[in-house]
Amino acid sequence: MTTETATAPSDAPATRTAAVRGLLACGVAAGPLFVGVTVAQAATREGFDPVVHPLSLLSLGDLGWLQIANFVVSGLLALAGAAGLRHSLAAGPASKWGPRLVGLYGIALVWGGVFVADPAFGYPAGAPDGAPAEQSWHSILHAFAAPGAGLTLLAACFVFARRFRLEHRTAWRVACYVVPALYLVLTAVSFAAADYRWMLAGGAFIWLWASAVTLQQLRSGR
Fold first, then answer.
1. Could you read off the pLDDT of 109-165 as tens digits, one per residue?
2. Is 10 among the domain residues?
């Protein structure tokens, strides 16, 4: 009885550390999962053209549940990663707003899965050839998901850039400036070229950046 009481306090920090590492691992998985599942579906879904169809339309049709699940599961993983960041980041720049912004990104992904877009641009079969004449309430709400995720991660890039500057981690700091620039440029190119593949590429850069930042925190062992 005495032995159990004596060992319990020393076990508690290890348990907490394992729990935080588990949360961070969830955050690391969020970006690759979302990008991988989305790209796989865009390449194989019958009738889906990644040039003219935004990724949101993958939530429609007989297999739409796959993309809905992708949105929700990836968002929940990002939220878990944000909790891990909150517990693992030492005081200083990004220790508060970094996890909050990553958490908001996770919420935006879940939001995009819960509220689905309307059929459009001929997808799925039977949908109008162009944009719908009127949007449903859930399609209107869905429209907030992409800018919500993008803007929160853009802000997170600059928040973490301050931290990396103080830690003299030049490569990470440069990445925090290059990634949002690529995101904005590729999004602009997507609209100019009327090709949603560029937008998906820009999104992939910033979603994977969030996972990479979480990974470096996991590997730091703090």
1. 999 999 999 999 999 988 988 888 899 999 999 999 999 999 999 999 999 999 999
2. no
Domain of residue 127, residue span: 21-220
> Angle, nearest 10°, between helix axes 170-193 and 196-220?
160
Residue 118 has phi, psi (to 5 degrees) of: -85, 150
Q: For the segment 6-61, what is each residue's pLDDT rounded down to a tens digit?
A: 444 556 566 668 899 999 999 999 999 999 999 999 999 999 999 999 999 999 99
CA distance 107 to 76: 8
Count the Cβ atoms, other than its own, within 10 Å of residue 126. Answer: 7
Whole-prediction pTM: 0.90
Residue type, 117: A
What radius of gyration, in Å, describes the C-alpha atoms of the chain?
Answer: 20
State the DSSP H helix or E strand holding residue 177, giving kind and residue range, or none if neither: helix 170-193
The answer to the question of residue 3 being in a domain is no
Do residues 29 and 76 lie in contact, with contact meaning Cβ atoms separated by under 8 Å? Answer: no
Read out DSSP for 85-145? Answer: HHHHPPSSTTTTHHHHHHHHHHHHHHHHHHSPPPPBTTBSTT--SSS-SS--HHHHHHTTH
According to DSSP, the residues that pair with 120 across neighbouring strands are 123
End-to-end CA distance of the chain: 32
Question: How many domains are contained in the chain?
Answer: 1
Tokens of 158: 């600059």
